[in-house]
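One chain is below:
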Amino acid sequence: MTLIVGLLIPLLGTMIGAAFVFLMKDEMSLRLQKALLGFASGVMVAASVWSLLIPSIEMELEAGKLAVIPAAIGFLLGMFFLLILDEVTPHLHVGTDKPEGLRSHLSRTAMLALAVTIHNLPEGMAVGAVFAGAEESAVGLSLASALAVSVGIAIQNIPEGAIISMPMRAAGNSKWRSFFLGSLSGAVEPIGGLAVVLLASLMTPAMPYLLAFAAGAMLYVVIEELIPEASEGEHSNIGTIGFAIGFVLMMVLDVVLG
């Protein structure tokens, strides 16, 4: 039951954020977008380091200096996986008119949703990886620390849900359609998390690789999308402040609840 709740908490965060479309009349201000993007980046970087990479290395400490090898391999594989996914999936980022990925005839709304779906997949994988590690009593991971990651991801999903639903509303979609599509973009998280949990149960020795894989996938999103969007143009310092707050919050959650 704890596993199911943990996998669904991030989706709840996305739904809460998507519901902002019912509360706010105008499009989200640029300053607020910068702050929220920076906050999300900080949460994801802290979760990648404290909850994924460090436990991945600690699980292999008996290997001595070679303990870092599974983490390094898993991390690079996670980066490569998201790189391929980013290249082949047709998607469109908020605030741009140039689609990325393979050429398609999908609508603008569908490609906006796919962009956030690509973003959310590694977050779901990260939650699934820490819960799988906690179930296997991995070093440095407990159900409390797994819940901390789940709650941290959910908190940063709130602004993400708003960032996807509100531009859809501004593009002419109804409030309910914008809310539904914004929420749907987060549905991939519990699916990705469950897939990692099932894979880990079949391949227990692969746990260090899976933890690092999720970290690499998340950091790809941060470096490729979130930080550039938070830093370009005006008010980049607001994105930096948001990053600091998100990083510290996730670090505190991991240590206090872990």
Summary: The chain is about 75% helix and 0% strand. The CA atoms of residues 2 and 143 lie 8 Å apart.
